[in-house]
Amino acid sequence: MIVLICEDVVKREKLEEVREYYRELVEYTRKQPGCLAYDVYQDEERDNVLIFVEKWADASCLDDHLKDNVYIEMFAKIEKHLTEEEKVRRYGEFV
């Protein structure tokens, strides 16, 4: 299993606008082969900081997702409203 933890910092004035983009992205991604979990959380202290927790069956499923044209188009809508580049950390099972 592969786990991704991603952090997006959204421009405050665009937070409500991008909320629908995130909903669409979550709904679409959860249906992808090998997606075990795909959730977005909002920081309780900095409301424009969003954390993705993604779980994938294996690296090939994740790689297919990242190359998916629909995903690429959806994320492009979000990316232009970020204040900085998305931070991504990738983890494999330990125990």
From TrEMBL:
Keywords, alphabetical: Monooxygenase, Oxidoreductase
Quote any Pfam family the record assigns: ABM
* GO molecular function terms noted in the UniProt entry: monooxygenase activity
The species this protein belongs to is Candidatus Allocopromorpha excrementigallinarum
Q: Where do the ABM domain residues begin and end?
A: 2-94
Q: Which PROSITE patterns match?
A: ABM (PS51725)
Keyword Oxidoreductase on entry: yes
The answer to keyword Oxidoreductase applying to this record is yes
Kindly give the PANTHER family that the UniProt entry links to this protein: ABM DOMAIN-CONTAINING PROTEIN, QUINOL MONOOXYGENASE YGIN-RELATED
This chain's protein is named Antibiotic biosynthesis monooxygenase
